[in-house]
Structure formats: C-alpha cells, structure tokens
Amino acid sequence: MLDFLQNKANRSLVDYVYGVEAGLDSNARKNRSGTTMEGILERHVAKISETLGLEWKAQTTAPFIKDNWNIEVPVDKSERRFDVAIYSKEQHKVWLVETNYYGGGGSKLKAVAGEFTELSQFVVTSNDNVEFVWVTDGQGWKTAHLPLSEAFGHITNIFNLNMLKEDFLADLLTK
What we know:
alpha/beta, 5-stranded mixed β-sheet, 21% strand
C-alpha cells in the first residue's frame, strides 16, 4: 500500500482518500446495508418458521413458488426475485417479503416506495392466497415522510427493525 501511495498514485493523498471515501459512501455502502438487512430478515424468518412450522426461501422467484408450493404469484418483471418467501402449508398461503435500509435521503426512497406499492397491489391479484410485506428502516426516511406515508396507504404490512424485534412479523404469520 505504501508503494502504491508513494509511486503509483497520480494525485495527492487527499484526492486518493477522498475517492476511497466517496466510493464507500455510495454503492458499496448501500450494498452492504441491503445485504445486512436481508441477513437480519432471514434470521428472523428462520427462527419464526422453525417455531411455527413454516417453509421459507430467500431470493426466490414466482416459478419456484409455483413449482414447490403450487401458488401462483403474478410478477411485474419476468426475473423478479423476492428477498424472502414464506409458505404455510396449513393455510396454503405465501407471504412475499422485500427489505431495504436507507442511511440517507434522496430520490431512491421515493422510487422504491412507489415500486413496492405497485408490486404489492400486483401480487395480491393472485387467485391464490398471497400477501406482501415490506421491511424497511433507516435515517433516510426522516427526510422522506411523504413517499412512506403514501406507501402506508397501499401496503398493509410495512415493518421496521424494531417491529421485527417486537415480533410483528410472527404475529402476522399466525393470523
């Protein structure tokens, strides 16, 4: 690393460090927070599913759900992957769960809120018993009240990390 900084870095150390920080502050950090949220969600779902005798699968598709659980899930994109799908054999029902985290504000929050609102309305048109759940959290929502408020008007089940901790998801799955 020292050799790189002394001999190969074409700009100043300040420019180099700023570039690294800018890179970590954008997509790399967003991807880490998304992966972290998926991991948190999967741990909760695994624990709840074991307790309640449910099946679940991470990063699943409508064809998987149809082939394995015989439930038709309408999708808006042919390659749509849901962060988690949970299946109750007893109820012959699937809950589709999407998750994300926003450390900062911006237009992405509004776009995702709109996308998940549309997706939730789309999947519930299934002739089978399908329900949509959105788990989201982060400081970014403090600056995006309107898109979140609009999403609450259309998506029945929106949870944050504290609600997961307080077993809101487990309560939903036992209804």
